[in-house]
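Suppose you are handed only these lines of text.
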Amino acid sequence: MKQILILGASGGIGAAMVAACRARGDQVTGLSRSGDGFDITDEASVAQHLAATGGPFDLVLVATGALEIAGAVPEKTIKGLSASAMLDQFALNTVGPALALSHAARLLPKDRAAVFAVLSARVGSIGDNAIGGWISYRSAKAGVNQVVRTAAIELARSHPQTACVALHPGTVQTPFTEKYLGRHPSVPAAEAADNLLQVMDGLTARDTGQFFDWAGKQVPW
Ligand SMILES: NC(=O)c1ccc[n+]([C@@H]2O[C@H](COP(=O)([O-])OP(=O)(O)OC[C@H]3O[C@@H](n4cnc5c(N)ncnc54)[C@H](OP(=O)(O)O)[C@@H]3O)[C@@H](O)[C@H]2O)c1
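From them, the structure of the protein bound to NAP can be written out as follows.
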């Protein structure tokens, strides 16, 4: 039985992950904005909630995030850029997971293997970007990839058995994608949770600082 912490436990993928872990007998702690007042963009909220959370955890998953914030839709081109919408993207999708990682040391065991994973997105890949668009969300996810990479290197010094990674969950049927799926192939959240769990179960410290998709394949930065 693993000890698991899910941040963003109310989300499509977060809730499916809580259910999948509980179904296999893991002990799951979930934190969410709507359920617990956990706001990952608010430093004091992150500090207070994570200080009050037990641990150590075998797995911490950051499953928070949004594509649309305060009604701002993803930009078709850079001409649609709004400074405040871009800053909102960075606050939630980059700074939020960074705040969680800055509290990670206390949450993770030093004497055994553990995983700290952040849900990023393939569209955050700079190397894989061939079509443009969605500049704020893409840039915020590229930013969180650097956050994960940097934190992984630092965490390896104190927690040599931890794998700290960014994950692309696939295209998943959640409130997040509702307006954007079109004919794009997608999977239900429960299937995405099972895929991600399989990837995270297979991670070792050798994988730390990397970016993987739902099938365990490395995504280019
Ligand atoms: N779905 C996809 O196809 C897809 C593809 C690539 C990457 N991703 C990534 O996967 C992650 C989860 O996506 P999802 O599809 O599960 O989205 P979702 O169903 O819309 O859930 C989003 C979650 O983020 C939480 N959240 C939003 N703002 C927050 C804040 N300020 N503080 C704390 N929590 C906050 C929400 O909490 P409340 O509801 O409690 O407010 C909710 O738990 C995101 O990072 C997304 O970028 C998703």
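What can we learn from it? The CA atoms of residues 130 and 215 lie 21 Å apart. Strands lie at 3-7, 27-31, 59-62, 114-119, 162-168, 172-173, 187-188, 211-213.
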